[in-house]
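Kindly review these tokens for lecture notes.

. . .
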Amino acid sequence: MKLLTPLFPALVLGAALLSGCSDTLSEIQPAAVSQQADSKTKSSAIGAVLIDLEQAEGQFSQGNKVVLPGVAVRHYDLMSATTGQISLTPAFSGTLESMRLVLGTGSTIKLADGTILPLDTPSGTTSGLKIKLDDTPLVAGTTYLLTVDFSVERDIVSRGNGTYGLKPVLRGTLKEAQVVVIIIPPATPS
């Protein structure tokens, strides 16, 4: 008994502290946050996905990171096979590993009902929308077409609050542009 007498005050204090812990822990735990989950977007719900391209940069295997000249600053519809292609003509030869498309603030998404909403692109206006490429050898002065491998279901996120976001990394392919030469024979005198 004499052994418990000096420990008794410590046991009482410990029990009092432990009984107060449950209230303290419940106070510091974060309250449940009501979040609406992001969901996949159906392609039938979207009419156009327009990115506001301001600049294209290339990352070459040699370590060069350069602004790619000859890229038209305008809106590109990622859903269109014709207006979704970006033409570029590199100033030097090398192996292009990836591209960054620096976007303006005017990227939009057009819903099937005609409603136009802003399109959020994480880091699009600062570090750019990254386009992963298979290592593609480029020849200086040759014109290439970038086609972004784009899918509404995979690359657009519909948020529960009515906003839409574009994933920050997409895949793409570069192909040499086909130049069509039309030869018109001289008119024969009549």
Notes: The CA atoms of residues 42 and 154 lie 9 Å apart.
